[in-house]
Amino acid sequence: MNRQFLVISGCFLLPSTLYFTSGIHKDGLVFLMLAVLVYSVYQSLHNCSFSARRSILIVTAFLFLFLLRNFVFLALVPAVFAWILADRTKWNALLTFIAVYLISGLLFLRSTLLTLLLIRLPSSSINRQIILTCRLLQRKYRLPLYNPIFGVL
Questions:
Q1: CA torsion angle 28 29 30 35 (round to 10)
Q2: Backbone dihedral angles phi then psi of residue 104, each to the nearest 5 degrees
Q3: pLDDT in tens, 91-134
């Protein structure tokens, strides 16, 4: 009974889900998809079989995470892959996670060579951050965006 109360209170009384998802926002759906993903992967590893139903749940959770918060998706793909690899192969979990994250980090940084879906991941991440910073500064300080004029130089 005591353990059941801890699980229920841990799921429903987290401050981040109570305060920041008071309306219908994407964060509640992201939390739901994370829970579905972790539960499905855990049950599949615990039962030693990836059934069609659980595989569909895992793919659907990944798809929704990609559509809602793509940075959460990018962080979860190596984590879930390392979790499954460490559990199936019985290798040292720490070394498996280090190797998977090192390889995925190198793939992320070298994605300009791969041109995965014609998106260069590091440069697009930096460009999105620059655009967001410019928009926030323009709203806060009412600064006009200037275009460089090379004729003046």
A1: 90
A2: -70, -35
A3: 898 999 999 999 988 887 766 555 545 455 666 666 777 777 77
User: Dihedrals φ, ψ of 31, to 5°?
Assistant: -60, -40
58 close to 37: Cβ distance less than 8 angstroms: yes
- The full DSSP string for 110-144 is THHHHTGGG--HHHHHHHHHHHHHHHHHHHHH-PP
Kindly report the pTM of this predicted structure: 0.59
Structure tokens of 9?
A: 């209170």
Radius of gyration of the chain (CA): 21
The model's pLDDT over 50-102, given as tens digits with 9 standing for 90+, comes to 888 888 999 999 998 888 888 888 889 999 999 999 998 888 989 999 999 99
Measure the CA–CA gap between 125 and 71, rounded to whole angstroms. 10
CB 21 within 8 A of CB 45: no
